[in-house]
Amino acid sequence: MLDRRSFLGAAGALALAGCGPREERSDVVVIGAGLAGLNAARLLEATGARVIVLEAGPRIGGRVDTRKDAPGSPELGAADIGALYARVLDTAASLQIELAAWPQLPSAYSYHYAGRTFTAAEWPTLDINPFANELRNVAPSALGQRFAPQPNPLPDAGAWLQEEFAALDIPYGKYLAEAGAPAAALPLIGVGQQLATLDAESALWRLRNSKIGALGMAAAMQARQPARRYVPGGLARLPEAMAGSLQEGVVRLNQRVVAIGQDARGVTVRTASGTTVRAAFAVCTIPLPVLRQVAFDPPLPALVGEAVATIPYGAATSVVLHVEQPYWEADGLPPNLWTDSPLQRGFLNPSPVGEGHHLWIFSTGAADLAARGWTDAETGEYVLQELKRIRPSTAGRVSVAAIRSFTRDPLVLGTYAHRAPGQIRRFGNILSQPVGRLLFAGEHTADLASGMEAAMESGERAALAIATQRS
Ligand SMILES: Cc1cc2nc3c(=O)[nH]c(=O)nc-3n(C[C@H](O)[C@H](O)[C@H](O)COP(=O)(O)OP(=O)(O)OC[C@H]3O[C@@H](n4cnc5c(N)ncnc54)[C@H](O)[C@@H]3O)c2cc1C
């Protein structure tokens, strides 16, 4: 994070660049046009506030990223809408965006591990299966769940912040070992994880997210509603409609915020292009790895600054392949992939525009292909070759539709926020608290939800806090 001197330097560099200080005024400046920022902006406008939204990139949506120009319009980021996503569901309904139930697709994996290809049914019979007794029967992808306590010790989605569960804020690998997981199980449980090691993540954070997931499944069953929905035509329709519902000219693209200052009367936000926005309040939804590059004057309070600097984000590259022919019919194996290859996992997804299927390769954690430093074209070629090796039936039956490395994307620098062991005890959810006239929002600040609903929750919280102070 930048200190006061760097802040002044960033501002000065703009003046030197001859960009000319252009100052605009507004009641609230919202930084970032993902779901969190757009939800905050919509709610604030509804209270009569004048809002300016500054977005660094050339498009809105952030980690909602439908590639309409690629075959079948693949989703590169978020795709699934959960049953308990009340704000997402309500916003979509109010903007006349109809949702569809996620189609029933096979959920089983075809495994490729230690050089062998097999199904869950074959795993107990294999000589590479390192386990004895009943553990031999547990499929590699189910081992993490096998050592998760039943029932989840957290009674509800907010319990992760209660003192009585702080003892669970320990390394996830250690937690699994204490729950009886043998050492041989840990590398298998590590497949598909987003942090570099199991111990890099807090067990309490894992329990929080699995509780939220389980509550969603239970709610869907009880209400006889789909557990997962998607947006026909592409999820990007949602943030586009949200932005379209704002006053004209509110959303400014290609405006990267580089500095945020505040005094007793307001906030001043500066962009790399030389614009300054002065407002009574700011809502900042910049993902933390990017926020580390922003200058604050005055500096953030020490503990807030430490949270911004250290909360870890997952590493991942999405490579979405368009399925030209059903490769699973050619080899009779389940379409999804689970592997110790750098590809890690692959999921068969519907095309949101009804043009067949996509195979979403999600290369994560220590295996993340982003670490190779390849171009997208090189990454795509590698994925096709590697798939041909571990799943020969894909050869000639899939083609690269689109690629996005979240790890390397300069507007996120990761997937989404996790928590390292000890960080819940140390920080609580400090980023949901106002810092003077600055409110942080974004999925990384949510109390009760995860994914897109977390972003919506956080935007709502920030908007309500500002509306309360303005009234
Ligand atoms: C691969 C992947 C799959 C996912 N799948 C799902 C899923 O199926 N279901 C689900 O619910 N969730 C999913 N998520 C999570 C979901 O996408 C996010 O929780 C949500 O979209 C985050 O919204 P946000 O507004 O907090 O952040 P973002 O969408 O990241 O918005 C932040 C915005 O800030 C902008 N910005 C960054 N820096 C600056 C700056 N300096 N100045 C101005 N603007 C800046 C960015 O460009 C961006 O537009 C997935 C995420 C990933 C990465």
Q: How is this structure best described in words?
A:
- The chain has 471 residues and is of the alpha/beta class.
- The protein has three domains: 4-63 and 236-311 and 421-470, FAD/NAD(P)-binding domain; 68-137 and 226-234 and 315-405, Polyamine Oxidase, Chain A, domain 2; 138-190 and 199-223, no CATH class.
- Helix content is 29%, strand content 20%.
- The chain contains 14 helices and 18 strands.
- The strands form three sheets. Strands 1, 2, 8, 9, 10, 11, 12 and 18 form an eight-stranded mixed sheet that branches. The protein has a seven-stranded mixed sheet with strand order 6-5-14-15-16-13-17, covered by helices on one side. It has a three-stranded antiparallel sheet with strand order 3-7-4.
- Helix 2 packs parallel to helix 14 (451-470).
- The two termini are 33 Å apart.
What name does CATH use for the topology of the largest domain?
A: FAD/NAD(P)-binding domain
Q: Could you say which structural class the secondary elements and strand pairing correspond to?
A: alpha/beta
How large, in whole angstroms, is the Cα Rg?
23 Å
Number of helices: 14
Q: List the ions, cofactors and other small molecules found in this model.
A: flavin-adenine dinucleotide
CATH architectural type of the largest domain? 3-Layer(bba) Sandwich
CATH superfamily of the largest domain: FAD/NAD(P)-binding domain
- Unreliable segments (pLDDT under 50, ≥5 consecutive)? 1-19
Top CATH class of the largest domain? Alpha Beta
The average pLDDT score comes to 94
By DSSP, the count of extended strands is 18
